[in-house]
TrEMBL record:
Name the UniProt record assigns to this protein: Bifunctional hydroxymethylpyrimidine kinase/phosphomethylpyrimidine kinase
EC class name: transferase
Organism: Actinoplanes aureus
ATP-binding listed as a keyword: yes
Domain of life: Bacteria
Keywords from the named record: ATP-binding, Kinase, Nucleotide-binding, Thiamine biosynthesis, Transferase
Pathway: Cofactor biosynthesis; thiamine diphosphate biosynthesis; 4-amino-2-methyl-5-diphosphomethylpyrimidine from 5-amino-1-(5-phospho-D-ribosyl)imidazole: step 3/3
Gene label: thiD
Pyridoxamine kinase/Phosphomethylpyrimidine kinase domain mapped to chain residues: 13-248
Listed GO MF terms: ATP binding; hydroxymethylpyrimidine kinase activity; phosphomethylpyrimidine kinase activity
Recorded catalytic activity of this chain's protein: 4-amino-2-methyl-5-(phosphooxymethyl)pyrimidine + ATP = 4-amino-2-methyl-5-(diphosphooxymethyl)pyrimidine + ADP; 4-amino-5-hydroxymethyl-2-methylpyrimidine + ATP = 4-amino-2-methyl-5-(phosphooxymethyl)pyrimidine + ADP + H(+)
Amino acid sequence: MNPPVVLTIAGSDSGGGAGIQADLKTFAALGAFGTSVITAITAQNTLGVTAIHPVPAEIVAAQLDAVLSDLPVAAVKIGMISDPDVAKVIAERADALPNLVVDPVLVATAGSRLGEVAVVGVLSAYPCVLTPNRHEAGALLGRPVETAEEMISAAAELAALGPRAVVVTGSELALDVLHLDGETTLLPGEPVPTVNNHGSGCTFSSAIAVRLAAGDPVPAAVAAAKDYVRRGLRGGSTWKLGQGPGPLDH
Ligand code: PLP
């Protein structure tokens, strides 16, 4: 039997920790067949981002059309999108993107700006599972989101923009907040002591997409993704791959 086909629309991380590379590793580890549309090429390693080359919108469109016209894509994860023209290309094909998960990527772990609130805000209103971390939720709402209470109200406010569900992640608080169908569920976690967390947001959203493609309802997909990220953080916690904070394991 064929594996489920999952698509990532995201940026490349030459250091292999986040972006397209993390997404494809997650897809493979969880039994999906991964396809990819690259929106930007970043030059980066564990110390940070040194250059970003945006892929022209027409090449993003050609990649999307090539994949969607031939392969039975069952779920789609959207990561780094910095160009409004690329957002438009995606919007024009939104109806062909099933089980959509949007990770509103704004800033790299090491601090470089990867996305703009105006562009990411448009994508966040799609009927998707939206997976901002606390900082991304704060940027989208224009106010800080720091405490558990602020995460709960942020999830509800972001849900009002149009997504199917919102998961605000707060790894430092060992708490994620899921807002689905008007209800809030607190998902307590177990903090994993590690500096090697690069790519954990990408991995989380990709794992949700795989489980949605396999037919899980949103809460089960989110729980499975949370468990996969926790195992990856544990697995990579003693790694010293580069000179800076490294990635999680897959
Ligand atoms: N996408 C790309 C291309 C990146 O380089 C990064 C972070 O550096 C991200 C997404 C977001 O990474 P994370 O999963 O650590 O939030």
